[in-house]
Design a protein that fits this description.
Blueprint (H helix, E strand, L loop, with lengths): L4 E2 L21 H10 L4 E3 L6 E8 L2 H13 L5 E4 L16 H9 L3 E4 L12 H19 L3 E6 L7 H10 L2 E9 L3 E3 L3 E5 L7 H14 L2 E6 L13 H13 L3 E2 L2 H7 L5
Parallel strand pairs: 1-7, 3-4, 3-10, 3-11, 4-5, 5-6, 6-7, 7-9, 9-10
Antiparallel strand pairs: 2-8
This protein binds zinc ion.
Zinc ion (ZN) binds next to strand 3.
Amino acid sequence: MNSITANSEWVGARGSERAPKRLTGLCASGSRYLARIVPTKPVRAKNAHPIVSFTFDDVPDSARTNGARILDRHGVRGTFYVAPGICGTQDEHWTVIDMRGVADLARSGHEIGCHTYSHVKVQSLTQSDLARETQRCFEALRDVGGSAVSKNFAYPFGNVSFPRKFQLDAQFTSCRSIYTGLNSGLIDLAMLRSVELYDRTSTEKSINAILDHAIATNAWVIFYTHDVTPNPSWIGASPTHLDMAVRAAKARGIQCLAVDEALTAIGVRA
Ligand SMILES: [Zn+2]
């Protein structure tokens, strides 16, 4: 399991402090590195059992028509991180869900999270631009998703600087990264670790190994993917692959929870 690092190995966490001014002058890569390794919202996970979450970024329409339907069949809620500004548009790889699709997901009981308004790299934004992005995202989602809209965020492209991480962790209950790892012990709610659920990079064997590791370490596994189609993009999953992962978790008796439910299970209040 060398590629899987637990989100629990840090020391010196001082979550109540804000970013010192001198850190805002860091080079871009240094700032990203600090954001990754320095916990700004540390919490001790108190889950009684391991947890698996299935999350979808952007969200391609097939994540709703195929992905959500698979979760529905298994009685599992997913978390869909939506950027309303790109809803209904045609991407290089897929058609992005439109707002009616977002409403459909919400009605079906799934969690709607925020992924900025315009699907932009957070690091590229000023403080006021980011504040505007998240406010617009939240308002647009609330209009269609109602109470299904949570205060959980996923970084577009996994990109964030140290100052913007501080800004977001004050606004959101959790922020999910794309840094590979499981979440157990002392975890950083502002940099939740995740695991790709892509046909290209995972297999039944690798997923089984991750789930077994989660049981051994009482961890929270957050899978993430994009499109869910028989011939998925390089960052997507086939329906068969997603179904296999859900079945593998259920076969082990691991509870499958949306991110908001998982946070409650680890003892975090929204
Ligand atoms: Zn994205």
